[in-house]
Design brief:
By secondary structure, the chain is α+β, with helices and mostly antiparallel strands. It has helices at 21-28, 33-56, 104-124, 173-186, 195-217, 275-278, 284-297, 304-314, 324-339, 343-354, and strands spanning 16-17, 77-81, 91-95, 136-140, 149-151, 156-158, 227-228, 243-244, 253-254, 258-259.
């Protein structure tokens, strides 16, 4: 059954990219074809994949059963190589338990899928993306000079970047964690990918992408950089990452890319019809709230702060069209339910207040 995006009670088509359209639009406008060409082709490919998902998505998240012989609560990773084509998944190049090969991109993708699986299992007791041992598939070397990475509802896909603005998309662990978290969201809250619920969708993916990196590196909230996509930008770019949770709006300020447009508070909320109502832009507000919450508590952010966000994501109370205020209110309720009238409750309420989101 083909699902229309307006079908009552249905799950919307899933296609989530790490690089926002407004960044690629900037590149596509450049006079230099070395910069504009890859960006235009990436935008065209993203539009094709997005349309393809909208025409083929069925009700509910895809049901992908664990493969025969899979060990319970063990990752089942398969890496494919598109060989610079666009047919998915491509040629299998590494399966679960197989030794690393010579392709560093394949090895990074394999390791990052494992790090994401480990984080959700050991920290939150979640067995893979769907909670039921879903195999993790990823395709590398997708298309030529493809400036993006995406989750298409069933698997991860990574471009190699153009080498001028973006490097290989398997380099930052948090990018991979971000995209796989879109899969977790798809199987839990399934937040509508537009406006405030869409910005929450992006923010939750950023939150857990950051937590997966911090957990892997053993970093406390105070030690972490709170950047999404550090290491992804090429040396010629004046910037450090795609987004900053610590200081939204400061990740880059570049002659080609322009200035990071993310707001940190509701006073700078951006109203736009682009990018599905600014989902990659306004996500800076809940991102900053989580940063404030986690750093106020101190210690490891994946523990108390991350647990509150996970409780909300998986608690069944988040509606698909949840606003920032709806989500914020649920985090307050989750903090109280888990920790009582303690520091966690005070810290989460204060964080939302600082970004201008009122809880009910």
């Amino acid at each position: 059954m083909v699902l229309n995006m307006t079908t009552p009670g249905g799950f919307e088509p899933v296609f989530c990219t790490i690089v926002p359209p407004h960044v690629l639009d900037k590149l596509a406008e450049q006079a230099d074809p070395v910069l504009s060409g890859p960006a235009r082709r990436t935008l065209q490919r993203d539009a094709f994949e997005r349309t393809h998902r909208s025409l083929t998505t069925v009700i509910g998240a895809p049901a992908v059963a664990p493969r025969a012989g899979d060990e319970p609560e063990k990752p089942q990773r398969t890496i494919f190589d598109a060989r610079h084509g666009t047919d998915l998944p491509g040629k299998k190049v590494r399966g679960e338990g197989e030794e690393p090969g010579k392709d560093a991109t394949v090895n990074r993708a394999y390791a990052a899928l494992g790090a994401t699986f480990e984080h959700f299992l050991k920290v939150y007791g979640r067995n893979s993306i769907d909670g039921a041992g879903m195999p993790l598939d990823a395709t590398v070397h997708y298309d030529r000079e493809y400036n993006n990475a995406f989750w298409n509802g069933e698997q991860m896909v990574f471009g190699d970047g153009d080498g001028e603005i973006f490097l290989d998309f398997t380099i930052p662990l948090d990018v991979i964690g971000h995209e796989l978290t879109h899969g977790v969201i798809q199987h839990t809250a399934n937040l509508t990918y537009y406006g405030q619920p869409g910005a929450l969708n992006e923010s939750v993916a950023d939150v857990f992408g950051a937590l997966i990196k911090q957990y892997s590196l053993g970093q406390s909230a105070a030690d972490a950089d709170w950047l999404i996509g550090a290491g992804l930008l090429a040396p010629r770019v004046t910037g450090v990452a795609l987004r900053s949770m610590k200081a939204p709006g400061t990740a880059y300020d570049d002659d080609v890319l322009g200035k990071d447009p993310q707001p940190a508070t509701m006073d700078e909320y951006v109203r736009t019809g682009r990018d599905n109502g600014g989902v990659h832009i306004n996500s800076g507000i809940p991102n900053h709230a989580f940063y404030l919450f986690a750093t106020e508590l101190g210690g490891n952010a994946w523990e108390r702060a991350g647990q509150v966000w996970y409780d909300v994501l998986t608690g069944g109370e988040v509606t698909q069209d949840a606003s920032f205020a709806d989500f914020a209110t649920l985090t307050v309720q989750a903090a109280r339910a888990r920790y009582g009238d303690a520091a966690e409750l005070e810290a989460v309420g204060k964080a939302w207040e600082q970004v201008g989101v009122r809880t009910r």
